[in-house]
Specification:
TIM Barrel; 380 residues; eight-stranded mixed beta sheet; 2 domains; alpha/beta; Lyase, Ornithine Decarboxylase, Chain A, domain 1; eight-stranded parallel beta sheet; binds pyridoxal-5'-phosphate
């Protein structure tokens, strides 16, 4: 946690504003992350994945730093435009779009679209003529802590057909994209997808269509409880794979970091509402917080993302605790399979700091479930 965040939370407490959980995002950390990506992948353009944290201050900072934006809806496109990004710095990267939304995006000047099937190509050809499209291919997400499943992307064998149709319908068959799964802790996982991409480039060239771009997606991790490799290691590994599969004809590349850009920039302050046991024999304590799955911590689903938790009593003796949210839904348990060691001295009313929460928290709490309001957010 940064000193700026600590100071901000201190002031918030002094003013008596600490009545509910809040996320605080430090823009200086976002700036450092952007610069680290730019250094680790110097010839690659950054398209920040807006869904990770669409706070206007975050988008404005990134726009000023020269970032581009990957968006999934008209609202996100408008957020990126409002932050100062010109339309040529915005991709409509969702493979599942309404035709009327594509038409509106085209009116707004967006000319770069993701597809993963022929029906989507036909929509774009109808209402966004002449645009560039890239075809997303499936990736198994192995090694990722938050895999993105089979929802997006087509089998690599199908991609040439999709891109050839785009070309025939007057679109620019621009390239290939993939996503190796979010919180990908293995920098070598880009290699297989780059091999597939290079095969598609070759096959398309044989059909007289020259692709020029590979979108390397997101997946760059943020540090939670376990250590993760530095972004530099990802840059080196990706560059090695590009050389291996594309030789000296390395295509234009882009990345779409979300979590890796904002995750470690945010800290949530929450409060202990109740500490109890289920029976006299129970060896585990239950610690209930005023934040849970439905007001910000959805990524604790299946205990996939394990956030570091700090308290004012760190260093005291600890015991194993189940950690749960405040709502009346029994799935609103954060960590039970693998309980957390928390200080014995932790009390009802104590504050806890949940670190690494700058990504995928406010967006997942956009609806106030069970009367708990959406997570309040400050960007400083
Ligand atoms: C969510 C998403 C990202 C960001 O993924 P991270 O793992 O957070 O970096 C990038 N690209 C696309 C298409 C996405 O949907």
């Amino acid at each position: 946690m940064t000193e700026r965040i600590q100071q901000f939370l201190h002031n918030r407490r002094l003013q008596g504003l600490d009545q509910g959980p809040c996320l605080v995002v430090d823009l200086e950390v976002v700036r450092d992350n952007f610069n680290a990506f730019a250094t680790a992948l110097p010839d690659t353009r950054v398209f920040y994945a807006v869904k990770a944290n669409p706070a206007p201050e975050v988008l404005e900072l990134l726009a000023r730093l020269g970032s581009c934006f990957d968006t999934a809806s008209l609202v996100e496109i408008q957020q990126a435009l409002a932050a100062g990004a010109s339309p040529d710095r915005i991709s409509f990267g969702n493979t599942i779009k309404k035709e009327r939304d594509i038409a509106r995006a085209y009116e707004l000047g967006i000319r770069l679209y993701a597809v993963d099937c022929e029906a989507e190509v036909e929509k774009i050809a109808r209402v966004a003529p002449g645009s560039r499209v890239f075809c997303r291919i499936l990736c198994d997400g192995e090694g990722a802590e938050w895999p993105l499943s089979r929802k997006f992307g087509c089998a690599p064998e199908m991609a040439p057909r999709v891109l050839e149709l785009a070309h025939r319908l007057g679109l620019v068959a621009h390239g290939i994209s993939f996503h190796v799964g979010s919180q990908q802790r293995n920098p070598r996982m880009w290699d297989g997808a780059l091999k597939s991409a290079s095969g598609i480039f070759t096959e398309m060239a044989e059909r007289g269509i020259h692709l020029s771009m590979v979108n390397l997606g997101g997946g760059f991790p943020t540090k939670y409880l376990k250590d993760v490799p530095a972004v530099k290691a990802y840059g080196q590994s990706i560059f090695r794979s590009l050389r291996k599969h594309f030789g000296n004809r390395i295509p234009e590349t882009i990345i779409e970091p979300g979590r890796g850009m904002v995750g470690n920039a945010g800290v949530i302050e929450a409060e202990v509402v109740l500490i109890s046991k289920k029976s006299d024999q129970d060896t585990l304590k239950w610690v209930f917080l005023d934040i849970g799955k439905f007001n910000g911590l959805a990524e604790t689903m299946d205990e996939m993302i394990r956030y570091p938790i700090r308290t004012a009593f760190d260093g005291d003796e600890t015991e194993k605790c189940v950690i749960a949210g405040p709502t009346c839904d029994s799935v609103d348990v954060l960590y039970e399979k693998e309980p957390y060691a928390l200080p014995i001295s932790l009390e009802i009313g104590s504050k806890v700091l949940i670190e690494g929460t700058g990504a995928y928290t406010t967006t997942y709490s956009a609806v106030g479930f069970n009367g708990f309001p959406p997570l309040q957010s400050y960007v400083i």
